Amino acid sequence: MAVSLMSPILRLALPALAALAAHPAAAQDAPVAAPPDWGAALAEDARAFHDTIADSHPGPVDSENPGFNAHLASGLEQALERARAADSYEHWYFALQAYAASFDDGHLGLTDWAPMGHAWTAGWPGFLTGLRSGPEGERHEVVFRRDETAPPLGAVLVGCDGRSADALAAEVIGRGAGRWNMASRRAAFAATLFVDQHNPWVRRAGQCDFRVDGETRAFRLSWRNLPDAVRDEGFAAARSPRFTAPIELRSWAGGQWIGLGGFNGDPASPDGVALTALQATVAEQTASIRTAPAVVFDLRGNNGGSSAWIYALARSLWGEDHVTFRQPKSTAVDWRASEANLATIESYKSMFADNAEAMAWLNEISAGLTAARAAGEPLWRQGDADEAPPAEPAAPSPMRARTWVLTDSGCASACLDAVDLLKALGATHVGLETSGDTVYMEVREEVLPGGRVAARVPMKVYRGRARGNNETWVPAHAWTGDLSDTAGIEAWLAELDAAAAAR
Q1: Is the pLDDT of residue 8 over 50?
Q2: Are 93 and 376 within 8 A, CB to CB?
């Protein structure tokens, strides 16, 4: 499974990421040799990344995003400027990653395509911090150290070298991570604040102030090699590991529990096989699920994929007419009518040949993109603009159970679609604040010239989506314990559900 371009250090700091694409292409296993000129490699890949976006992303022709082209051009300009001085893998990697991250779009980025053949090393000043929250907001707190001269455990970072703690984190981490406005991103990457990844485009800290026992103390940092084992131990202290819910239907004290830890769009994938079986089980047990006191939709560990899975489950439980009436709606969907996007849609047909609903959807898009290209139109609008809104169902929904949707901070893409839908159907959101996504969706991949990474580019844009651009979902009830503590979460939810039933 592909993951977004990220150094091994950043990967370990972040909960495991699945590809945001529903149907990622297969990457190659053979390593790619280092180029004779890293600057030329950076320039070539940056131009190709730019050109792929210009060709196939809706942004360059999106009248509702007039600043997109300027951003696309300025990012390329910075990458080409950096290419003039680039002479190492790190120069290539961090410059390209910064360009991709600057769009603040989880669907637009870079995916590892071939082994890099690069030995990553890192440094640290003898301590690591983690992001903690309290009444005063977020704070970077020392959570791990191996140097008695370092700030003590619990010390709170004030700033370094004239940069506030938040400004330092935004510069050192945020430029490469993107979407730094989201609490989930800041929490996920916070442990790398005092990890020197040898990024030549950022300035590591030299002297920092920490608040210790109510007083501000200055510490001169002494950077040294960070062994992998020590790094892993420090990251474990800085954050809780992510837990992935099994794909299953089971009973719990409050009623029924539907585990949905993944939405991989490929029906032949492990997730796809499990989800297909789950759909059949839910269809068989619809009556008992609908009349249970409470049903929990557990999305822990879900990174997205295809929203078709949650819609199929919802139709089984709430009924087709209620899902159609309640589901979140956009005013329109516009597809970028590029040759490469059309080819991508055509390529999906072999994968979904046995799925009549999916094939109808693909055939509609293929015909629309073909017609738009023939007419010289850059965008094709999907659906009938004059279609009447769905009528309110005549009878109440057969789904009588109270419903809860449980998320962690990595919930993105189709996982967010699931929260959108379940909340619209009346579910109460619990757990952690989700991630967020832009209105640009449905990605495809194109390998860049160097063969090391592929551009991941959205093909369509939603118009008038109810959830805003990069807007997150904040739970009605926040879980503050270990996300892998399923028994604890069940007990907590049982209390919440009992309170809801009493109202």
Answers
A1: no
A2: no
Range of weakest confidence among 5-19, 219-233, 293-307: 5-19
The pLDDT value given to residue 358: 87
Under 8 Å between Cβ of 18 and 304: yes
Taking Cα atoms as reference points, which of 484, 476, 480 lies closest to residue 500? 476
Given the DSSP bridges, would you call strands 207-212 and 156-160 parallel, antiparallel or unpaired?
antiparallel
Whether 240 contacts 483, CB under 8 Å: yes
Closest listed residue to residue 246, CA positions, set 306, 283, 292, 299: 299
pLDDT at 240: 66
- Name the residue with tokens 């279609």: 387
Q: Give the angle 237-240-245 at the CA atoms, nearest 5°.
A: 155
Residue 486 CA: distances (Å) to CA of 14, 274, 300, 420, 490: 21, 20, 10, 23, 6
Q: How far apart are CA 126 and CA 449, in angstroms?
A: 39
pLDDT tens digit string along 371-380? Answer: 999 999 999 9
Tell me, what DSSP letter sits at residue 4?
B
Amino acid at 231: R
Banded model confidence at residue 22, pLDDT cuts 50, 70, 90: very low
Distance between CA atoms of residues 27 and 398, nearest Å: 45
Query: 109-141 as b/e, with b when 16 or more CB fall inside 10 Å?
Result: bbbbbbebebeeebebbbbbbbbbeeeeebbbb
Dist CA 434 CA 404 (whole Å): 15
Sign of the CA dihedral with 303 first, then 267, 335, and 452 last = positive
Minimal CA–CA distance to 469: which of 416, 391, 407, 397? 416
**How do residues 383-418 score in pLDDT, each as one tens digit?**
765 567 788 998 999 999 999 999 998 898 899 999
Amino acid, single-letter form, for residue 297? F
In this structure, of 142-156, 226-240, 366-380, the range with the lowest mean pLDDT score is 226-240
Q: How far apart are CA 132 and CA 112, in angstroms?
A: 31
CA dist., res. 347 & res. 358, Å (int): 13
Residue 12: what pLDDT?
A: 44
